[in-house]
């Protein structure tokens, strides 16, 4: 997912950390009011860990996937734990760099990633607690990866562009040295609850998570339904596969999971005017924002309004014309309804405890918004309806 900041004055960071100021302002200031207008009744609200802050880094994918994994551990009866997002980020930087060089630079190397990257790392390397690897070794209290990204990319492009015909044996050591300088030395072993672990042992023996129990679902028509394909977004660097189903089945999968106590890692787009932090909701009104008068726009968040009838065709068009992109990753933890019966999903964000009228650090996304703007969902296979679970049973990351 493209890079998103955690502060209200700097909420969107694309591939360049200084880019798209207009989009920053739009996401930060969508809506005219922060006064509570909706009345929500809880349907499902699944336990989650505390809201984290990704800071000035494009690591929402790691924060959302880690939040999802922490909820999974609670669901499985394990104690609450704060896992390190930056350990996952470090390993992704390393392996993405290797693929970037192998592909002669024809790969997006930036701070973004995809939800399945957490299981890629767990399966290949392991995991560590947050206090073992906070990844803050460069003089700030929060993440700030602009300088780090530029330094790493500089090394890679120097390797890619050299004209001697042979790549040196030193570049990976130099690359890892930059990661050590900014994030801290990679933990080889550590003490946790009185026992010594390596990242591999911690993932296997303490977490006990089987990466193959998880699956990513999507819904697009440029590939056949009931087939696997890697979603064509720049940050899907590992080419993780998703199972393609019709829109109604993707939504049924979300509802079935929540009803049965499973949370969801959600890849989505937050660049539309309907995603309003100050109002605490994300909506997709029937009338396009561009066609609204100033008065209509100001009233859009005043109370429940009729929302768009999102079809498979509308959804596909948004993806094809770049209106729906992989902007952000969050965690869906529940479901509410408004005073008129409209359905909204409870979404945990990673921009810190930003205030809104309903639940600080969260946003309530309408059913229409989720239908329209979802890139993919990732969840445990046991949370899927039987038909889809059976179809995905043999899938491996």
Features:
two-stranded antiparallel sheet, Cathepsin B, Chain A, single chain, eleven-stranded mixed beta sheet, alpha+beta, 13 strands
Write a structural description.
This protein has helices at residues 21-29, 60-75, 85-102, 117-124, 146-161, 171-183, 199-207, 247-259, 294-299, 312-320, 367-373, 386-391; strands spanning 41-45, 190-192, 195-197, 214-218, 228-230, 241-244, 264-268, 275-276, 281-282, 328-337, 343-348, 362-366, 374-380. The chain is α+β, with helices and mostly antiparallel strands. The chain has one domain (21-391): Cysteine proteinases (Cathepsin B, Chain A). Strands 1, 4, 5, 6, 7, 8, 9, 10, 11, 12 and 13 form an 11-stranded mixed β-sheet that branches. Strand 8 (275-276) and strand 9 form a beta hairpin. Helix 5 packs antiparallel against helix 6. The longest helix is centred in the N-terminal third of the chain and has 18 residues, at 85-102. The relative contact order is 0.19. Mean pLDDT is 91; it is low at 2-25.
Short structural summary:
The protein is an alpha+beta fold. It has one domain (21-391): Alpha-Beta Complex (Cathepsin B, Chain A), CATH 3.90.70.10. It has helices spanning 21-29, 60-75, 85-102, 117-124, 146-161, 171-183, 199-207, 247-259, 294-299, 312-320, 367-373, 386-391; strands at 41-45, 190-192, 195-197, 214-218, 228-230, 241-244, 264-268, 275-276, 281-282, 328-337, 343-348, 362-366, 374-380.
């Amino acid at each position: 997912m493209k890079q998103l900041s955690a502060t209200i004055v700097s909420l969107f960071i694309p591939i360049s950390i200084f880019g798209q100021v207009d989009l920053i302002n739009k996401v930060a200031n969508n809506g005219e009011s922060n006064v509570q207008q909706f009345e929500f009744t809880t349907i499902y609200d699944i336990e989650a860990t505390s809201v984290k802050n990704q800071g000035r880094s494009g690591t929402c994918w790691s924060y959302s996937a880690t939040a999802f994994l922490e909820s999974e551990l609670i669901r499985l009866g394990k104690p609450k734990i704060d896992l390190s997002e930056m350990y996952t980020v470090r390993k992704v930087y390393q392996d993405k760099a290797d693929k970037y060089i192998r592909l002669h630079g024809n790969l997006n190397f930036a701070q973004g990633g995809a939800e399945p990257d957490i299981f890629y790392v767990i399966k290949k390397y392991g995991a560590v607690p947050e206090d073992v690897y906070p990844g803050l070794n460069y003089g700030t209290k929060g993440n700030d990866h602009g300088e780090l990204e530029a330094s790493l990319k500089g090394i890679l492009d120097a390797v890619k562009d050299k004209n001697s015909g042979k790549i040196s044996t030193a570049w990976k050591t130099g690359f890892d040295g930059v990661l050590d300088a900014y994030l801290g030395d990679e933990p080889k072993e550590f003490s946790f609850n009185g026992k010594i672990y390596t990242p591999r042992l911690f993932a296997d023996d303490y977490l006990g998570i089987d990466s193959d129990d998880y699956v990513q679902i999507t819904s697009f028509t440029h590939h056949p339904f009931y087939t696997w394909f890697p979603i064509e977004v720049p940050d899907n660097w590992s080419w993780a596969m998703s199972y393609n189903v019709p829109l109604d089945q993707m939504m049924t999968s979300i509802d079935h999971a929540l009803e049965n106590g499973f949370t969801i890692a959600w890849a989505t787009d937050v660049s539309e005017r309907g995603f309003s932090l100050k109002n605490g909701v994300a909506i997709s009104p029937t009338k396009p924002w561009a066609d609204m008068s100033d008065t209509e726009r100001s009233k859009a968040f005043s109370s429940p309004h009729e929302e768009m009838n999102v079809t498979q065709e509308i959804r596909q068009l948004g993806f094809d014309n770049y209106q729906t992109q992989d902007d952000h990753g969050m965690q869906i933890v529940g479901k509410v309804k408004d005073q008129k019966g409209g359905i909204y999903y409870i979404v945990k964000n990673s921009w810190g405890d930003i205030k809104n009228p309903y639940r600080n650090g969260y946003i309530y996304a309408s059913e229409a918004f989720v239908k329209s703007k979802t890139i993919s969902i990732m969840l445990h296979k046991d949370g899927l309806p039987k038909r889809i679970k059976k179809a995905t049973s043999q899938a491996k990351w």
